[in-house]
Amino acid sequence: MCKVTISAFQMIQKFPDNESARLHIERIRWNGKPVCPRCNSSEKQYAQNRKYEPGYYICATCEKTYTVRTGTIFERSHVDLHKWLFAIYLVCTARKGISSLQLSKEIGVTQKTAWFMLQRIRQACEDDNGNDDGNPDGFLKGVVEVDEVYVGGLESNKHESKKQPEGCRYRDKAVVLGIKERDGKVMAKHVPSSKSKDVRPIIRKSVAEGSTLCTDEFCVYADMHKWYDHKTVQHSAKQYVDGKAHT
Fold first, then answer.
1. 43 secondary structure, DSSP code
2. Which of 149, 142, 151, 88 is nearest to 114 (CA)?
3. Exposure check for the chain: N or C terminus, fewer CB within 10 A?
4. pTM of the prediction?
5. Contact status, residue 216 vs residue 205, Cβ threshold 8 Å
């Protein structure tokens, strides 16, 4: 989990320009010894003498030119690295997320560029392998909460001609399945529908067998006891907590 311990002012002071950010990323990625991202060779890596474009290297093994951006989310981007670092800082510290419009104003780029940066940052934050917490299988485990949400606006806010009939209010909404490891990781995935055929395979693929699974009484979770210690709460009866069971 990302923990930020410096203020925005300190962040700007630490990386005031592109060069300071480049040197910092090189230290993190290579620890003082460049490695070619194309052939993974660390032998005979030479810095090119570019007065106005420092940070270029050439590999004697594959004869390819590269920078610290090559093979990262910064590749093929003309945005300065100190703006990238500040964007990552904002994503990590924003309690309710940050929009591309807000990011564009914060770092002085167009909204289109900010959207592109956010997509890459979010992609880099994905952790399908789970290697950062000693869980090589990538499964969520322990006590895991699962629930689905329907995104698409309230029926009461729609024009009369677009309102769905009673009992079909979720027909035109997007379904997002949320899975949360209690006090741990969270994953959210768009699913085609809230039917068993779309929901159950994702849970089985994401949650380790034998874990405690907490859900509501929705029928798609009915047979989860086959693989998990399944605990439920009755949302329809306004029950939201039952001992350890809550979502």
1. S
2. 88
3. N
4. 0.57
5. no
